[in-house]
Amino acid sequence: MHRVVWLFAALLCRLALAGTVDRYSLLTSTGRIGTLVVRSERNVVDVDWRVDQNGRGPKVHEHLVLDASGLPTSREISGTNTYGAPVKESFQVEAGRARWKTLDDSGEAPSSNAIYVDNRGSPWSQMHQLRVLLASKGLTRAALPSGTLRLEKVRSVKVGRRVERLDAYALWGLGLSPQVLLARGSRLVASLDPFAVLVEDGFPESFERLSALASDLSAELLVRLSRRLAHRVDGPVWITQVNIFDPATGTSSAGRNVVLYGDRIVGLRSDAPPAGAVTIDGGGGTLLPGLLDAHAHMDDWSALLHVASGVTFVRDPGNDNQRLLDLVRRIDSGELIGPRVKMSGFLEGKSPFSAAHGFTVRTLDEALDKVRWYADHGFWGIKIYNSMPPDLVKPIAAEAHRLGLHVSGHVPAFMTAERAIADGYDEISHINQLLLMFVLRDTEDPRTPFRFTVIGERLKDVNPAGAGFQRLLGLMKQRHTALDPTLATFVNNLAARPGTGSPVDAPWLDHVPTPVRRDRKSILLDIKPAQYAAYEASQKRQDEFVALLHREGIPLVPGTDDLPGLGLHSELESWVHAGISPADTLVAATLGGARFLGSDAELGSISVGKRADLYLVEGDPLKDIHEIRKGRLVVKNGVLYFPDEMESALGIVPFARHVEPTSAAPPKPAAR
Asked: What is the pLDDT, as a whole number, of residue 18?
């Protein structure tokens, strides 16, 4: 008997020495797209993190040594980022001094038991941050290189087929929105987002249920903010002392007051406001119609960021369908702050490179069925993606047009933009998708980050006056084809350099939390110094193409495919840098965009009878487009929002102070 007990004890000892393995999966509506494996033995941890989605995804290994309190004394991170650029990051603590180094930055500071926030690591960080913060006073601890991390308990939830009670937390300080975590004690069970969920393997709950829970928990946090950030006024609102931008003429003028009542513009008046009226003195700033972002992959927190930057109208070009429908319902009901949304349904072909959004189809019949689903669910258009077989595009576009849907998209692999337009595209998404036909060789597959690097390597040699591009230009004119260039995003791709980031980020980079700033200063693509000159020349050629398309009358619509709000301002600045006038740029972001989306009867200009969607900025963006960042007031559907309040709530240093309404009674928080 004693021998049995001894053998059992020895077995337990060997198991303990062997350590533990924790496995998690990254899930979307289309299935598993990533894995996290954490191997722990005593105070040593090894982590493998891999994501495969849309031909890209991070592949990272970490090796850590922890001290007795669970904080790393050594952390080594290596691998590649989402787009294939190398990752090499280290963190060490010696004699109370913390030192860190990446390929983009380095620094040191007293360790002081602070949490080091990595720049290119794995979700092990969330497991670690949860444990440390739960043991910290006030659920708060200083972060390195700077800042503070904070846990906020949202509530306890019952999940899983076994109905397990878990705690839901919001983790603040890592970005411009909190990360929602589910915990069993101090153990991470899941990291939740409505569109992607990282969950421990074997947890008995579906992606759909966890995604819905993520929406509900985020909504609870956002509703609390909405009560504080949204202001509704009973009675008319007079906006005075402003220069009103008229997108019909591309000019601004003073001398008139804008009168709002409810959700409408009811007057453009030269007389003074009546006694006791709610009045907003614009201080000589410029009052614009609310801005449009035509390439905004929406989520609940990005909705808030859009409005904070004066973006009151967006087109979502592809998302998780059910989560997007739910988000739009919450915004339209007034439960959440967000812009108006026109939806384009994502339609992808099945391949190893398929993107995890919308619907992925194998056959024409299946594709046509999904087009009809989008029409039946109120979508404005469809977006065709990289792996759609080229021969399916024409019948898909024909069915979409029969149902009144707009057709846009990437150009499928082994198809040209010219053929896509001839087969029914109304719009090309991204400047690179328009131009790939001039830089790709017949057998080259653009369904990986190669679709970005090949532009950097070869676009400089493409002549805008050449016969090929001129033929494409003529077809676009004939078919009235639009382009959503997302120019700032591709400046980021081509012009970003290690440690400095991209020039389009410079105007706002010092306003955001340190983790966001570090992330943006890290390059996305694997570009070597010997390639810099070629990439810079290609970036300039890219600007030339966009400016030429504008001069030739091709409809351009401003979109981001990047950070909400801040990214739209970067897009407008990039257009001006490329040679498009500030006036034409602002027209495209207001009335031009509203016309493009078929909403100009209600939106896009400051006209009596139109919706009260407005954006007041401090200076004159017609003279200096950078003034577009200095928001002082946003009005969406007649509700007042103060950008500095919203920015501060999200950890952004405000760009300007808001205007204070004056009245016999101040505006009260909007009922929710």
From this structure: 53
